[in-house]
Design a protein that fits this description.
CATH topology: Alpha-Beta Plaits
Strand content: 35-45%
Distance between the termini: 23 Å
Number of helices: 3
CATH architecture: 2-Layer Sandwich
Largest sheet: 4 strands, antiparallel
Helix content: 25-40%
Structural class: alpha+beta
Radius of gyration: 14 Å
Oligomer: single chain
Number of domains: 1
Strand order of the largest sheet: 2-3-1-4
Amino acid sequence: MITIEECEEVFEELKSDGIDISKPLCWIFSFADENKRALEKLADDLQKQGFKFRSIEQTTDENNKLTDYLMLNVSINKIYTPVSLYNQNNAFDVMADEMDLHLYYGFNCEP
């Protein structure tokens, strides 16, 4: 689970890199599971909430060998605060649990 402190650190790093966090940024959220259909359903559900489908890709392990898991990546251009990003991550954790997905992997930001 992603902590509020981790979200605050992300925002501090963005600010120190000169990124204007008061404007919408491209946020990418990732989910992992073995079931492609489950990830496709989640992608459809999230698109209805304004997220953009980016990809479903097979994952690799630390030795760069393919695993049984697929990674769904969705994005949204949005203004988040550390608190709203933390809440979004918690909602995605719950969503992944309710859909019985392997895990909500986390987020990244492309300024």
